[in-house]
Amino acid sequence: MRLKKYTDYALRVLIYTASKKDGELANKKEISEVFHISENHLGKIIHELNKLSLIETIRGRSGGIRLAKAPADINVGYVVRQMEDDFHLLECFDCATNYCVITPACKLRHVLRDALRAFLEVLDAYTLEDLLTNQDELRDLMGISAN
């Protein structure tokens, strides 16, 4: 299974934002520069994360974004489920478009459904806080001052 770049970038936005010091806001421009992602694309991701109440956006000249919840309260599995719009690994996963003649007897669909369930269960076991255990190293790599 491959996650969309949209999901990857959303997780990066959360990691970057969580890596800022208490009270310090992140902004779209700096995230764009660190990860080489267009500001336009980031705007859509930030909007979606805001709608999900994972981040707060502060408007104005000195505005930016910050987490709306503690990192321990942001579940990785939840974020992935919200950002991904298609978990149909095979044609037979979508009844509306399934034309495979062996579907009634096929075991592969069940194996892949179990694999997808296990994949999501692993993601559900982690929070954003778990992704920040090496926060000093992350800050250094992203150019965030530790002061």
Poorly predicted ranges = none
CATH architecture descriptor of the domain at 5-86 and 127-142: Orthogonal Bundle
Provide the residue-averaged pLDDT: 91
Side by side, the strands of the main sheet go 1-2
Cα-based radius of gyration, to the nearest Å: 18 Å
Q: And the CATH topology of the domain at 5-86 and 127-142? A: Arc Repressor Mutant, subunit A
| Helical residue percent band | 40-55%
Main beta sheet: 2 strands, antiparallel
Helix count, per DSSP?
A: 6
Shape: elongated
Corresponding CATH superfamily of the domain at 5-86 and 127-142: Winged helix-like DNA-binding domain superfamily/Winged helix DNA-binding domain
| Topology as a string of helices (H) and strands (E) | HHHEEHHH
**In angstroms, what separates the terminal alpha carbons?**
39 Å
Q: Strand pairing plus helix content: what structural class?
A: mainly alpha
How many individual β-strands?
2
The CATH class of the domain at 5-86 and 127-142 is Mainly Alpha
**% residues in beta strands:** 5-15%
What would a concise description of this structure say?
This protein is mainly alpha-helical and 147 residues long.
What report would you give on this structure?
With 147 residues, this protein is mainly alpha-helical. The chain has a domain at 5-86 and 127-142: Arc Repressor Mutant, subunit A. It has 6 helices and 2 strands. It starts with a helix and ends in a 5-residue tail after the last helix. The model has no long low-confidence stretch (mean pLDDT 91).
